[in-house]
Amino acid sequence: MKFGVVVFPGSNCDRDVAYVTRDILKQPTRMVWHQDTDISDLDVVIIPGGFSYGDYLRCGAIARFSPVMQQVITHANQGKPVLGICNGFQVLTEAGLLPGVLTRNRDLHFICDRVSLKVENNSLPWTQGYSKDEIITLPIAHGEGRYHADASTLKALEDNGQVVFRYEGQNPNGSLNNIAGICNITGNVLGMMPHPERASDEMLGSSDGLKMFAGLLEKVAAMV
């Protein structure tokens, strides 16, 4: 399986993701510059965290217009896996691949911490390695991570099982319904504020995030 990690000016978690896919899981991985217009060789696209274009205007608003994003939209519409982490989640909402928006944290402070998450949906290729309602711990690092959507969108997300991760216990940023991660209606596009790539190596104190990437590989292997 070939992974592509999108790199915008200001991305700073791209190499963290590549370390997991290339060095831990031994999968071919290509760094995809934001001006690239051909990603047809990729099986999976990951949009990493960071501060794309300096987060000017609002997080993800400029990155959404990068040449590569039209290719990512096509990739997603073909049913192929797309993961957006932190700033990547913001980019996916700006691009219309996921509903809602990420706004300033409740207290307007940048938060860097570890949080407990409940796995609400473990039927996705990304989450099949977890148990339903499993509690995991992942790092967060964001200033605009409060998920917001109108009442009808929230109801649809809940009714359709599109809430994938939910903050357990303390809600760090004020996200509605404690939402930490959601997917699209078909389940191939996932956006989340916590960083699974920062919890994928025991040397960093946790490997709770590794199950996401390994689970995807197992799902694809089972289909071959």
TrEMBL record:
Reactions the enzyme catalyzes: N(2)-formyl-N(1)-(5-phospho-beta-D-ribosyl)glycinamide + L-glutamine + ATP + H2O = 2-formamido-N(1)-(5-O-phospho-beta-D-ribosyl)acetamidine + L-glutamate + ADP + phosphate + H(+); L-glutamine + H2O = L-glutamate + NH4(+)
**Family annotation (InterPro entries):** Class_I_gatase-like, PRibForGlyAmidine_synth_PurQ
- The residues annotated as the active site are 86 (nucleophile), 195, 197
Q: Pathway, per UniProt?
A: Purine metabolism; IMP biosynthesis via de novo pathway; 5-amino-1-(5-phospho-D-ribosyl)imidazole from N(2)-formyl-N(1)-(5-phospho-D-ribosyl)glycinamide: step 1/2
Keyword 4Fe-4S on this protein? no
Q: Name one GO molecular function term.
A: phosphoribosylformylglycinamidine synthase activity
What is the E.C. number? Answer: 6.3.5.3, 3.5.1.2
Gene Ontology BP annotations: 'de novo' IMP biosynthetic process
Q: Does the keyword ATP-binding apply?
A: yes
What's the subunit arrangement here?
Part of the FGAM synthase complex composed of 1 PurL, 1 PurQ and 2 PurS subunits.
Summarize the protein's role. Answer: Part of the phosphoribosylformylglycinamidine synthase complex involved in the purines biosynthetic pathway. Catalyzes the ATP-dependent conversion of formylglycinamide ribonucleotide (FGAR) and glutamine to yield formylglycinamidine ribonucleotide (FGAM) and glutamate. The FGAM synthase complex is composed of three subunits. PurQ produces an ammonia molecule by converting glutamine to glutamate. PurL transfers the ammonia molecule to FGAR to form FGAM in an ATP-dependent manner.
Q: What is the protein name stated in its UniProt record?
A: Phosphoribosylformylglycinamidine synthase subunit PurQ
